[in-house]
Amino acid sequence: MSLKAIDQWVQEHAEQSLEQLFTLLRQESISTQNKGMRECAGLMENLMKEVGLETKVFETNGHPILYGELESTIDEAPTLLLYGHYDVQPPDPLEDWVSPPFEPTIRDGRIYARGAGDNKGQIVAQLLGLKAYLDTFESLPINIKVVVEGEEEMGSVHLPEFVQEHKQLLQADLVYTADGPSHNSGQPLVVLGVRGMLAFEIEIEGAAFDNHSGNTGNVVPNPAWELLELLQTMRDQDGKVLIDGFYDHIRPATSTEEDLLNQLPYNAKEVGEKIGFPSLQLNSADYHRKLTFEPTFNILGLKSGYLDEGVKTIIPSKASVKIDTRLVVDQDPKDIFHKIEQHVKKQHPTAHVRFLGSMDPSRTPVDTAFVQKAIKGVAHSFNQEPLIQPSLGGSLPDFVWTKILEAPSMLMPYANFDQRNHSPNENIAVDNFLNGIRCTAHVIHELGS
Description:
The protein is α+β, with helices and mostly antiparallel strands.
């Protein structure tokens, strides 16, 4: 039977596929607030069973991890592991949503809802791609395994332990994730790694309570100023991180990876408009290098004193900052945190540094055999060669596959570039969702050829 039958299946089942997605989108599943997690896990389990997977729920000390598998009848068939997550970010601020975040709505060819792009829309497309293949060909040319977790939006805190404990069960020739945004050009994109992440908080205390800024001015220290002075010792005006050893152990890009970056299309005006920063001036080489091969040192938020309407003349008693750093291969988050602690201790001995979370960076070589076969499947699905990016700018728990499971891993983002994940009016284009179903089926077929 021709692969064109897959296209027909997707077209004939479009409305049903959308309703299956909408069932999950209607269910709140905010992992950081433990809202609706059990209910959503149950809905995801039902969908996995509907597409034909033998499914099991694994309990963790947090939210459940769902596992499914379906074996091929072919001896020594390769194994593909699909990964996704059913948890979502909080929808706040609610007033910025055009339609309610948990009432999926189609406007101008896009599905608007929290989780539409990140990640319910993309993992559902993968599962329905498996269903499309089974309905069309009646059997699989490869073994399929599926892992859907409920803690990605809180750092996948229990996924590494789960993978370590079940390495034999999870053995695979390739891990295939649909997550993140596609390229801003709209061309299909294959990503072969992610940046890691370290999040931490620094707090400085002054007096035991807020003081009158006149009565004790120049007498009581101001922790807000002290915090700003400390931050100036950590990063210069050009963005270079000044912490000793921060740039140690960064793996240089290979010539092949550099070539792949140079092939990525780029239009500063278009990108600037899509990210809400129309004055973007970076050239193509700098833009892609900064997103792929360079770490970041980003302030998430600053807190101190009085910020409401009017004036309250005080010297605040505390000041704090939350920072996240995106790390590249082979930076170690634990090593970087230790170096930050040492720096802060040297500059401000009484400041408190608190670890908030981390994720290791990861990268898979482009010449990996199963990666190359999967890329062929993507190309056949879209009738064009995909762009190949060595690393995603964001962070996913890709390291659990490449470092713990020791399997190659690739990401194929199905969502549109401007999906606005983590923001109000998150969305996925209907065409992107349906193309994701089609693409998954094509990848399965190519891996089994």
